[in-house]
Amino acid sequence: MASRAELQEQKKKTSNELILAATQLCAEEGYASLSIRSVARKAGIAPTSFYRHFRDIDELGVAIVDKANIVLEKCMSKAQQKMPEPCVEKISSSEQILQSIEGVVRPFAETFIECIEQNNQLLCLFFQERTGNSEPMRMAISEAIKRLIDALSHELKRISQDFEKKIVETQLIAESMITITSYDAVVMLLNSELDSSEVNEHIIKKLNLLLLGAHTKNK
After folding, report:
1. In angstroms, how far is CA 152 from the centroid of its own chain?
2. Which of 65, 84, 161, 190 has its CA 20 to 30 A from that of 6?
3. Can you list the residues of the chain whose pLDDT is less than 70?
4. Number of H helices and number of E strands within the chain?
5. How far is CA 148 from CA 73, 175, 194, in A?
6. Domain boundaries, the chain
7. pLDDT per position as a tens digit, 31-49
């Protein structure tokens, strides 16, 4: 007879298989087409067994968001580790300001895009369902993105301390950076003709201009 720990481990394994099955089906047919029967069939379990793990499709959708959130938080942490330390002296020249801005923009964009490429089905679903029909899923995605915005906003405030004129509205700028990067990265994944390195540089250029504009506006 299996121990409680073994049963819990098996339940966790099956839950993960259901999440993976749903993610794969969404990539093929879209989230709106998901059904308990189709997900259970894809995962290789009986439809009635689905309810041992999730109440309904919406709860499964929230579990998918939770998994994506873990991936994105690791991605943001990795990007932050690549960002430079603050300068000792205040920065005033345009060249220094651009270098400082790119010191945040490039690690963020490159790490974020790499993360989306490596977890394309999961993260494409995450960003596409930001405006989807499932309210619980939309709310979970909104909370996850807010945490990303807070982390990126913190980095923008940090580099802004080096400038004679600080960047204001960092929350709004961080939200725009995440929206631009995720949208362009998802479009790239859906269009095999696009070159990833060119898309990467195009995104970095957009983000640099966004931050330069925000800095100039504050002068």
Report:
1. 12
2. 65
3. 1-2, 86-94, 162-165, 215-219
4. 8, 0
5. 7, 8, 27
6. 1-54, 61-217
7. 888 999 999 999 999 999 9
Whether CATH 3.40.50.720 fits 61-217? no
1-54 CATH: 1.10.10.60
Query: In degrees, to the nearest 5, what angle opens at C-alpha 101 toward C-alphas 95 and 103?
Result: 105
Please give the structure tokens belonging to residue 206: 């957009």
At 82-125, the pLDDT tens digits run 987 765 555 556 677 778 888 889 999 999 999 999 999 999 99
User: Apex CA 33: angle with CA 29 and CA 38, to 5°?
Assistant: 90
From the number of C-beta atoms within 10 Å of its C-beta (0-12, 13-18, 19+), residue 79 rates as buried
**Three-class SS of residue 88?**
coil
What predicted TM-score, i.e. pTM, was given to this entire model? 0.87
Rounded distance between C-alpha atoms, residue 160 and residue 163, angstroms: 5
